[in-house]
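Below is how a single chain appears once it has passed through the pipeline. First comes the sequence as given, then the structure the pipeline wrote out for it. We keep one example in the README because the format questions we get most often are answered faster by looking than by reading.
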Amino acid sequence: MHEKTGIIIQARTGSSRLPKKIVLPFYQDNCVLDILLLKLSSVFNSNKIVVATTTNQSDDLVEGITLRHGCMVFRGDETDVLKRFIDASDFYGYNKIIRICADNPFLSISSVAQLCNEFDSSVADYICYATSSGIPTIKTHYGFWCEAVKVEALKKINIMTTEAIYHEHVTNFIYSHRDIFDCKLLKIPCEIENKQNIRMTLDTIDDFNMLREIYAGIIDLGRDPSEINDVVAYLECHTNYYKAMKEQIKKNKK
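Resulting structure:
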């Protein structure tokens, strides 16, 4: 990873559908934020990992967890997430970032590493994993992948629009205006894309309870919840989860 590239995790406790979802006990004594920081720190230097949270007092808890793992913290605007990412990047001197959402406990660490390598050698403004029809996975329910973006591109968004949707959903303006930005899409495996009922992202209490069961079940089998193939293999042996996931997808449109 280049010196001026950082990993920024978007995290806060103020989720409307499930408050404190990222700090609730998820597996043994670890919350989802613990799990992400442990996984990422096993591959990347902790001084390259920043948790961008808010100035809200309730997010003191997020800061405490992050510092316990030896990672960096930035506290910024709660509603203007775009500004929070720009400010965090400027504070730590990054010109490229890997953006991770803290509600993805099954994040594929090998895919993060691959994305970093792609971004290091690319001139693209934005790189993401995407479906065969070009839909970025941030717009899906898979929950396995993250995205990469130049800070310069984020600053361009900030100048070009004040629409709330683009300031809340940091990269939406980029992949919605591909005529303006240089975007590179990494296709996800077709065998994963064909399983459209997979939902490993965490929004609601139903998600939380189901994903916690699945995470523990995978580990009990001696497999790795950060390996996509291990997750899918487990689901194929426990297909009852697909029905529940399908219902959650209907209720929680991206």
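The two ends are 30 Å apart (CA to CA).

See the next section for the split statistics.
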